[in-house]
Design goal:
Number of helices: 1
Helix content: 25-40%
Strand content: 25-35%
Radius of gyration: 30 Å
Order of helices and strands: HEEEEEEEEEE
Largest sheet: 8 strands, antiparallel
């Protein structure tokens, strides 16, 4: 009789452990599904895998994700004391500088300008990037942006400590 009771207790114990394991597996699957759904909602990578929420965009000439405000900053000529970087255009060059990629403000895509000879301007339709004590970006005959040709954020008077 003692053997039967001991056997029943062991069977009952093993069965209850199996049920607990099955419930834990079900909870884990629910959490995985919930996490997957949350990841899909928060996933803001573009078609090239660049994380837009971190400020990355795809560079066609360099074929990699880059920070949106990297490259050579060109400021709008109609706002000479521009302090808002979001109004500036940014230029990146490929390795041999035969192509210039221009990121215009408030535009999600870039334009690729090309040149035939070193020292000459880069062109695409009515866009022209002219090397002249830095760079000048024109659309048709109108100068839209200009800059000193230095890479990176420009220090403005309000950036310095007084």
């Amino acid at each position: 009789m003692k053997k039967i009771i001991t056997f029943l207790i062991i069977v009952l114990f093993v069965s209850s452990c199996k049920l607990i394991d099955q419930n834990d597996d079900a909870d884990e699957n629910t959490n995985v599904d919930k996490t997957s759904k949350d990841s899909i909602i928060v996933n803001d990578k573009d078609e090239n895998g660049c994380l837009a929420s971190a400020g990355y965009v795809w560079s066609k000439v360099n074929k990699e994700c880059i920070k949106g405000f990297s490259g050579i900053q060109l400021n709008p000529v109609d706002k000479p004391n521009n302090q808002d970087e979001t109004l500036s255009a940014y230029v990146l060059f490929n390795e041999d500088a035969s192509s210039a990629e221009v990121f215009l403000p408030k535009d999600t895509t870039s334009i690729i300008l090309t040149r035939v000879l070193k020292g000459k301007p880069w062109f695409l339709k009515d866009w022209q990037l002219v090397p002249s004590n830095g760079y000048i970006l024109k659309k048709g005959a109108v100068t839209m942006f200009s800059g000193d040709g230095e890479i990176g954020k420009k220090e403005i008077e309000t950036d310095t400590e007084q």
